[in-house]
Amino acid sequence: MHVLILGGTGEARRLAGLLYDADLSGMRVTSSLAGRVAAPRLPAGEVRVGGFGGAEGLAQWLRTHRVDVLIDATHPFARTISFNAAAAAAAAHVPLLALRRPGWVPQEGDRWHAADSLDDAASLLAELGRRVFLTTGRMGLAAFAHLDELWFLMRSVDAPEPPCPARMEVLLDRGPFTLDGEREVLRAHGIDVLVTKDSGGAATAPKLTAAREAGIPVVVVRRPPVPDGVGVAATPEEAAAWVRQFSG
Ligand code: NAP
Q1: pTM above 0.70?
Q2: Atom 12 of ligand 1 has which residue's CA nearest to it?
Q3: In the CATH scheme, what is the homologous superfamily, with its name and number, of domain 2-102+224-244?
Q4: Which residue's CA is the nearest one to ligand 1's atom 10?
Q5: In the structure, which protein residues have their CB atom closer than 6 angstroms to any atom of ligand 1?
Q6: pLDDT along the chain (248 residues), means of 10
Q7: Which residue's C-alpha comes closest to atom 11 of ligand 1?
Q8: SS3 content of the chain, % helix, strand, coil (to 5)
Q9: One fold for both 2-102+224-244 and 112-221?
Q10: With contact defined as beta carbons under 8 Å apart, do 221 and 194 qualify?
Q11: How far is Cα 132 from Cα 153, in angstroms, rounded to an integer?
């Protein structure tokens, strides 16, 4: 049985590890990475890197490589590949499950402002602060590039490319992050507003606690929807159990 995991997340790596351990049962596990990160953490099992060429290319890949089960374990904000996965799985008649860690839930003391997109987040910022901690990743910085009055601390794994805000410092780092570390980032840079996607998960959640403690407002960009009709697992363990039902 051949399982293809669309990856790029910690959950995808954990799922590959869980299924690879079950490799004794003859399961072949391939993880697919987009190739955005220069030196990605690699999962267990086989790895392929790079786009498929849209939904049709992915459907063709599923057929050519005789994939039996497809798991979309991409980041909750990787919208295009998730919709391509749904179309390709339907076309190639391959069962599909989305693995999505739950979103974050506000707690007492949080000052969250919901945004529907990065553009929407940018439009809220001037009202909320002057020194912005931007943690939405290096893609999509163009949405903030026109905000000349604001100063940005932009954290990402790899360096961003223009267009970027004029007044911006880059902090190259990769989670998981600690609460002490996040407190220090906010303090050392005089941050007065935080911007994040609702990525969910523990690895990047300490910034929310640090912001709550410091009374700093947080702009939280809402997730895009999971494609219609696609089942969702919240944990790698749940997804692994779903896969195993097909292994006879
Ligand atoms: P996206 O906008 O949904 O996808 C754009 C294109 O990238 C897709 O059409 C596909 O190209 C290719 N692609 C994306 N994920 C792929 C994968 N796992 N394997 C092979 N090709 C893939 O994706 P994105 O938001 O740029 O994210 C790219 C990758 O980074 C994803 O794997 C995601 O899990 C990871 N990531 C994203 C975020 C985020 O905030 N978006 C955060 C952390 C990690 P083709 O059409 O040519 O197949």
Answers
A1: yes
A2: 51
A3: NAD(P)-binding Rossmann-like Domain (3.40.50.720)
A4: 51
A5: 6-9, 32-34, 36, 51-54, 57-58, 74-75, 77-81, 84, 137, 139, 197
A6: 96 95 80 94 96 98 98 97 98 98 97 98 97 96 98 97 96 96 98 98 96 98 96 97 90
A7: 51
A8: 35, 20, 45
A9: yes
A10: no
A11: 6
